[in-house]
Design a protein that fits this description.
four-stranded mixed β-sheet; 4 strands; about 190 residues; 60s Ribosomal Protein L30, Chain: A
């Protein structure tokens, strides 16, 4: 079997297994709630429970709504550093725009601050392809930071491809966690 065929088979079996586990009845016939999530359920194509859904805003302007939903100090901003991507994609999902806008504004207000955007991919695909995909993801995040006020000389990009996974599992939850670009602050004064 070829590597893509094996990957497709493994992904199908993983999805089937996850679906079976999610609907496994307990002893009294009721469906058990899912366990704690490592990855946001929306990234796995699962329904997002109400406690994880963003708070609705009455603002009519999308940008104003994004800013209203983002109320964090500099410490909170520093914890929102990873942008996650769909399989084989490098376009930024709308839910990451508020954090990227905050990073861009921070960089605009602190001209001596420097960041490195590290692009990553999951293990599926050749090492060369994963390096290229990681770089495309890093450039997408850099462009978003530049759109929000960062200067070109403040943002450096690098790719690690599939060499620095957050999770080493061979399942969709691990792969979803590894399809990311991380914003790393290098210099701040």
């Amino acid at each position: 079997m070829t590597r893509p065929a094996l990957s497709t088979l493994a992904l199908s079996l993983s999805a089937l297994f996850l679906a079976a586990c999610a609907a496994a009845p307990s002893n009294n016939g009721q469906v058990l709630p899912p366990t704690a999530f490592k990855v946001h359920p929306g990234l796995l194509g699962q329904p997002v429970p109400p406690e994880l859904q963003p708070i609705a805003s009455n603002a009519t302007d999308g940008q104003t709504a994004a800013r209203a939903g983002l109320q964090m100090d500099e410490e909170g901003l520093r914890t929102q550093r990873s942008v996650y991507f769909d399989f084989d994609k490098f376009d930024i999902k709308p839910e990451f725009n508020p954090a990227l806008a905050a990073h861009g504004r921070y960089l605009a207000q602190h001209p001596k601050a420097r960041v490195r955007v590290e692009g990553n991919a999951d293990e599926r695909g050749s090492p060369h392809y994963n390096r290229v995909l990681g770089m495309r993801r890093a450039h997408a995040v850099k462009n978003a930071l530049l759109e929000h006020g960062a200067r070109d000389q403040q943002v450096k990009t690098i790719t690690f491809g599939d060499t620095r996974p957050k999770l080493k599992g061979k399942d969709e939850a691990s792969w979803a966690e590894n399809r990311r670009a991380d914003v790393v602050y290098e210099q701040e004064k």
